[in-house]
UniProtKB/TrEMBL annotation:
<dbReference type="InterPro" id="IPR036108">
    <property type="entry name" value="4pyrrol_syn_uPrphyn_synt_sf"/>
</dbReference>
<dbReference type="Pfam" id="PF02602">
    <property type="entry name" value="HEM4"/>
</dbReference>
<protein>
    <submittedName>
        <fullName>Uroporphyrinogen-III synthase</fullName>
    </submittedName>
</protein>
<dbReference type="InterPro" id="IPR003754">
    <property type="entry name" value="4pyrrol_synth_uPrphyn_synth"/>
</dbReference>
<feature type="domain" description="Tetrapyrrole biosynthesis uroporphyrinogen III synthase">
    <location>
        <begin position="11"/>
        <end position="240"/>
    </location>
</feature>
Length: 264
């Protein structure tokens, strides 16, 4: 079962199918447009004030540049800015004819911090951080921690809401929730902390999902899932792409029951 938003779930589904799995989509969160882009528009009108733009998601990249286009602003306005992107998210920039100046080896906000910390004159530089506005679940600590770490480097940080992440109503998932309760799901794949929080608002894990393996897309999501009470069994070591996540899930089941799950 995949709890990622549909825009991400399609890519994870393809990777899982390639490993022989049968993905069932139950997006626990949805990403959509903000009702009010005023704060983002103000930032876009003052791009000359920033030295860096740090994207933490593909959705942030897509919405940021779509809104630039809607305002008929030239991408040349960010020519003086250095762009940070994480892992495969950097590929999204190419759709707008751009490329990242900083792609950390560790595909996470902490990876960005590690690289920026090595720049001798980083203190005093201004950085724009387009992030989601979170509704219906507690905001995960990833973005707040990222902003705090940037500030501790001495950077001037402007966090700006760029798109909306909201919890999904469990009433949409009568069939999917029934499958979980009936023990028909072998694993649940979480790609973010917000998904875990929203999922736990839909289900009582101990009562309904005891036989499911819990898989997390990287150590940060895994750590937060465990704080929320989930027993995580699968953590992707390669969390730069969903291919690595799918491989970790497949390897877990092959190791658990090779006669049942081996492709051979």
């Amino acid at each position: 079962m995949i709890t990622a938003p549909r825009s991400y779930a399609a890519r994870l589904s393809q990777a899982l199918i390639a490993q022989g799995a049968l993905p069932i989509l139950m997006p626990a969160i949805a990403t959509c447009h903000l009702e009010n882009f005023t704060e983002l528009y103000v930032a876009l009108e003052h791009l000359d004030q920033y030295d860096w733009i740090a994207f933490t998601s593909r959705n942030g990249i897509e919405t940021f540049f779509e809104q630039m286009q809607s305002l008929e602003l030239s991408f040349s306005l960010i020519g003086h800015c250095k762009i940070c992107a994480i892992g495969k998210d950097a590929e999204k920039l190419t759709e707008f004819g751009l490329k990242a100046d900083l792609i950390p080896d560790e595909p996470s906000p902490q990876g960005v911090i590690a690289v920026l910390a090595k720049i001798s004159d980083i203190a005093g530089q201004a950085i724009l951080v387009p992030v989601p506005e979170v509704v219906g679940v507690p905001e995960p600590d990833v973005v707040p921690n990222f902003v705090t770490d940037l500030q501790q480097l001495g950077m001037i940080v402007h966090r700006v809401p760029t798109y909306l992440t909201r919890a999904v109503d469990k009433a949409l998932y009568t069939v999917e929730l029934a499958l979980l309760k009936q023990g028909q799901i072998d694993a649940i794949a979480f790609s973010s902390t917000a998904e875990v929080s929203s999922f736990l608002q839909m289900m009582e894990f101990e009562a309904d999902c005891q036989n499911c393996a819990i898989a997390c897309f990287g150590p940060y999501t895994a750590a937060n899932a465990e704080k929320l009470g989930l027993p995580v069994q699968i953590v992707a070591a390669d969390f730069s792409s969903f291919a690595g996540f799918a491989e970790a899930i497949a390897r877990f089941f092959v190791d658990q029951a090779p006669e049942k799950f081996s492709k051979s």
